[in-house]
Amino acid sequence: RAPRIYTRTGDSGFSSTFTGERRPKGDRIFEALGATDELSSAIGLAGEFSSEKGHTFVDQLHKVQCMLQDVGSNLATPLSSAREAHRKRTSFSEKPILELEQWIDSYSEQLPPLRAFILPSGGRSSAALHFSRAVCRRAERCVVPLVQAGEADPNVAKYLNRLSDYLFVLARYAAMKEGKEEKIYIKPEP
Q1: Which residue, of 20, 68, 138, 162, has the fewest CB within 10 Å?
Q2: Secondary structure (3-state) at 3
């Protein structure tokens, strides 16, 4: 018999952290986890659009989604209730941040310089990557208070910060590779 997907343990408005602590579902830890999950979903959609266009960076997006699982593990392990075994299992290193920086530099070198504010556009792949970037910024805003309160690893917030930069550069790169025009901000006439 297949296991059930539902547990009914959250029906009363509480959920458990990885440390076993029960907190209200509106707790900022679960807000951050939800935003991170939404980010992974948005990146998955962007990856599907990009795959249809044959972009070679799709494997990087898959790797990012895997890293977001690790981000979630760290967030689900509040340092205030984590034992050393929990911390060891869910620690988040600086290595993925450095990898994102390498990717950003590599794509940036191939792009024309920015001369105006760019609106989310440039074809489906690019627009989906821009949307992912906006979701990433929200996830980062949810994570920063946890880091400031000492509940999450500072590298998690740094990773999300760099990830939004990567998604911005990648959106521009996708538009360029597909020959799609990036729409720029034009100040409306008064």
Answers
A1: 20
A2: coil
Q: What is the pTM of this model?
A: 0.90
Lowest mean pLDDT among 82-86, 118-122, 153-157, 161-165: 82-86
- 60 located within any domain: yes
- How many domains does the structure of the chain reveal? 1
Neighbours of 34 (CB within 10 A): 15
Q: What is the CA 34 to chain-centroid distance, rounded? A: 11
Nearest to 161 by CA among 133, 187, 125: 133
Q: Which residues, listed in sequence order, are joined to residue 24 by a DSSP beta bridge? A: 14
Q: Structural domain of residue 40, as residue ranges?
A: 25-76+93-110+118-178
CATH at 102: 1.20.1200.10
Quick check: 114 and 165 in contact, CB under 8 A? no
Alpha-helical segments (H) within 53-111:
58-75, 84-90, 95-108
